[in-house]
Queue: 2 jobs
Job 1
Amino acid sequence: MAKLTVYDPPMCCSTGVCGPSVDPVLPRFAADLEWLSTQGVEVARFNMAQQPGAFVANEVVKRALAEEGNDCLPLVLVEGRVVSRGTHPTRKELAALVGIAVEETPSLCSAAVEELVGIGAAIAANCMPCLKYHADKARSLGVSDEDMARAVAIGNAVKQVPARAILNLADRFLNGLVQEEVRSQSCCTPAPGKADSKCC
């Protein structure tokens, strides 16, 4: 079982969530150390503000502090040897430091998927030039009309959520008159069998 030890700079807590501004790296690092523990790695962590004795007791850490000052913190040691200084390694880096293989999640993003996302975003943004651009590019990549139609439907569904929300809010402000008014309007929507219905 590998042993990994972290010597942190002075701070109120290791998660970093109790200060006036949260450093997103610290909660992520704390979660990654917890993950290492679940992988069978022995993890120890010391905070200079709360456990100064641990820093004095370790000759490697004491020497690094004497030579570099607090700039060397956080120090990460594996089996007593410094493997990282001045930064909080990512989960992938931590895994490599202790010899754990991390499976890479394959990316599902392709040029075709990017164009489908663009089509959905164009619909949600009511951007006609964007829709034409992404649809033409998607078609050149061999994307089917059926898949593009699905992207349009998803973009439209996303767009309808805030549209309904703003109408509901207006309806509350205006004592329920908005929904009635909306139902009475057929602007730009021809009546069945009447293609010449007037558009606003």
Job 2
Amino acid sequence: MRAVVMHEFGGDDVLGLEEIEAPSPGPGEILLRVAAVEVSRTRDVATRTGKHPFSQFVTLPHVLGGDCAGTVEAVGEGVDAGLVGQRVTASATQTCGQCEQCRIGRHERCAQLSLLGVHREGSYAELAVVQARVVRPIPDELSFAEAAALAADGAIAFHQLETAGTVAGEHVLVTGATGALGTTLCALGPALGAEVIGLARRPEAIPAELNLTARLDANDPELTEKLLEITGPAGLPVAIDNVANPEAFSRYFGALAIGGRVVFSGAIATPEGLPVLPVPAVPLYVKSITLVGTRTSPQATDDRFWKLVADGFRLPPGLVHELPLERAAEAHAAIAANTQLGHTILTIG
């Protein structure tokens, strides 16, 4: 089968298309014929450099690639054979299914959680093996490319909004509003009735198709005041932060309401390393502010999100950009250069 393989860590030129042996599904697994795979800034681009914490779990040579969509080719022992031929998505998150947290349905807290494309061979390939528990059927009219984009960020965006206790009519600040997860949040929030404020270093680049209350500059020294102008003196109820930029955090933290909630599901690394946030202790307790980190979404949340998709939720046009598998290096370069908005998807004909 064809796959994009890296034999060493380094620049995007370490990615090359090769013929390798096809994998076989084990117990509880499926073999997926991959049609589309999301290119992730952290799991793929940063891991490829060898400088990200994920890199230490990679065994070379290696196939990157996580969240994807395609058709079930075969199933392993204990998996319903009726899945063969179905159009599905597959999450990058793989869990043990046996620990205490998995047994009570909290797979996102699995002590042995692993990632497709990091701890095991990924989906930059014609065929990939994934756990059966992480696949979800997709509507016939949904393209594989958009399905892969939704698999990458839809459920976690939905989980972040639920974790924050977001209710219709509340203002929600979304950082990194030009990226894959940020644009998904900016599309999903209004669909759930939230008043979303997009925050980015290039606010003018936040797609016009998104139904936002405001677009603000993450580098604006008057960000606190501008947020309070939008929300009123009560302040900002919710912030969903997947960038964790210390300067922007300090500014929007000052606008948080009493009982404000901040949810994190990631942090954008810099050449100096991963960011450290300056959390002022006094307003943290005086305002009863909640800071929550969540690394992935529970399977029950995944089910609720895909029910929304089945009922018609879609990303606005222009947020999914497709490149063929053999142009994986080009996709990595675009993401590293911040020239791509929304989702970057590799398609496999």
